[in-house]
Automatic annotation (TrEMBL):
Keyword flag Glycoprotein: no
Catalytic activity: L-threonyl-[protein] + FAD = FMN-L-threonyl-[protein] + AMP + H(+)
Pfam families referenced in this protein's UniProt entry, alphabetically: ApbE
Record-stated family: Belongs to the ApbE family.
Cofactor note: Magnesium. Can also use manganese.
UniProt name for this protein: FAD:protein FMN transferase
Amino acid sequence: MEKLYKVQTRFLFHSNIKIKIPDKYEDNIFDELFSVLEKVNKNYNSYSQGSFVDRINKNAGNFVKVDDETIKMLEKIIYFSDILRGEYDITIMPLIRLWGFYKENPETVPDKKEIEKIKQLVNYKKIEIDKINNKVKIEAGQEIVTGSFIKSYAIDSLGKKMREKGITDAVINAGGSSILSINDKENQSLGIIVENPENEKEIEKDKNGYPVKITDRKYKGKDEYNDLFDIEISNEAYSTSNQINTYIEINGEKYGHIISPKTGYPSKNKQIGIITEDAFIGDIISTGLFNQTPEIFSEIIKELSKEMKIEGYLITFDGKIHYSEKFLNYMDI
């Protein structure tokens, strides 16, 4: 007999968060599970009024009292920002605002001089942490944004809670961009469809059937969807980012929401996917590697694989698909 599940979806972190668990659990367990996410949203989301991060931002230039979790979170972010060679920076909000991502209809591309000026505010190394007194300070004019990691941090917290409650079979899907799979012997893996970021364009494959490039040719296949490939994960997280779904349009040209802290301009790469055991770390890495060349992407994955399980792919601006060494092991083509 096929195992039955129940699913509930709620809107948090500007995303539809879906929790799937075995049918044997009572419906009221969802309130307890979603409360874990709501707590993270309330305490650590930069968009939540009164959160620790919101207070840090509103008191830029001064130390702010925070809890232990905020400090641990920031320390881990800073650690991975160093590994990602400065292409991941949670103080990037001034650049995001400059580009007009919070305007209804941005009309002009920022001037190069403006970008260079605002870039001076973007530097995670200026975040000061006082562990003795549990205080954090950013420089005046700086602003932390949590959008690149907060929902994945929340689903990791929920995953931990589920395991504590003895839930060994579950899926937490945060808007499709962060997915955590909890598996046991009965349900050993989760299949995920990885979509083509430019669905109207054709996928070029090598002799083994592996996708290698998104071409400029229009897709003429018979399938309803022109997907890249399927992957299987087990007690792992899949994090993905692309420039296709979230962008601004200025004078007919689209600019994606992932901005390089180094150049000050939106990345021209198309999509990235990272598999790790920790959704929080996976989201940080997927954002930081999005801005990299294929060579540096591979270098950093190899470096990180010495201390953690990690594989991924990167679709660059020219449509070419670059895989880490063992990512093909996850693929079902």
